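User: Please go through the entry that follows and flag anything odd:
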Amino acid sequence: MEKERSVDKLARYMMYTAVATVVLAICWFFRDVIIYMLAAGLVSLIGQPIMTFLNKLKIKGHGLPSWIYAILTLVIIIGLFLAIVATIIPIIAGIAKDISMVNVESAAMSISVPLKELNDFLIAKFPGLGADFRIETAILNEIKKLNVINASLFSSIINSIASFVASFGVGIFSVMFIAFFFLKDNKLFENIIGALVPDKHEQNAREAYNDIEHLLSRYFIGLIIEILGVALIDFLGLLLIARLGFNASIGIAFICGVLNIIPYVGPLMGGVIGSVLAIVMKYCCALPVGLDVNFWVFIIILIAIFWFAQIIDGLIYQPVIYSNSIKANALEIFIVLLMAGYIGGIIGMLVAIPCYTVIRVIAARFFRNVKFIRKLTGENNR
């Protein structure tokens, strides 16, 4: 009898494993469709506040059909995105054009004094570099290597870009088409989930979905506010203090704001890239910009601007986004990001918080009897 139970249990586990393998294989085969659906879900989460606002608008006491509100929401989202692209891309292209016209040799001459000071410092601290070491020569050699592009590589890049644009166009249409139905019927995804789970778990699954939708909607909207907030602080600092001019300031600030969404690494990357671009535009371009101060003072000003933006981000934006939006403490988030970075690098860190939010809510709904889950999610305090 005991042996039969063991055999039945083993057969059941094998069946579960086989089903899970088939499901994973299907998901992998249709991964593009799943990505489109997830992206559409993200768009619908961002658009939910707009839908809520539009639903409150009444014409002679009557509202419009939900499909009209869904179309208006998508038009607003696409319009805002295109407005940002139309404003920022030409500015960044102009910065790239100015940098591409830089004469590297004359640029090195324009900062010869601070470079000499830096060379003397490096030689004194690192004698192994040799008395003839020149950092500008080393950088110049590396830049010249980047200029070696053969025709076949150029053709390959053009083909890759064309293929990407075509795939991107199909993807955007698919995402917007799916997002329209998610916005039109905000219960659609919930009903799909309810149909996939057993009846005894359906109520918990629906409640978990509503919690996830609410938390992720707040998180992604908060993330957009964080990008705009950091970019605004950087822009004002670069424009009013560093005196880089409007176009250069807004272009560099936008780059820093977008990179800021990468946890921990992003702000450092944004600060380094922003500082390098600002220095190049001040000392190397045909029409130099920037505050008329010593080279090292200018660098200190740039560091202070980016550092101040990160202080505001750390004290105001991130606590609201990470702690209040997804209801997790700072240590919890830090450990999750470290693990995600170790597993998936930068991509892993980008998706870590949304994925952890989903796992956390599901655990709170379905495993609330486990003491560790209750402690982690704060169920004991409710």
The first helix runs from residue 2 to 29. DSSP finds 14 helices and no strands in the chain. The radius of gyration is 27 Å.
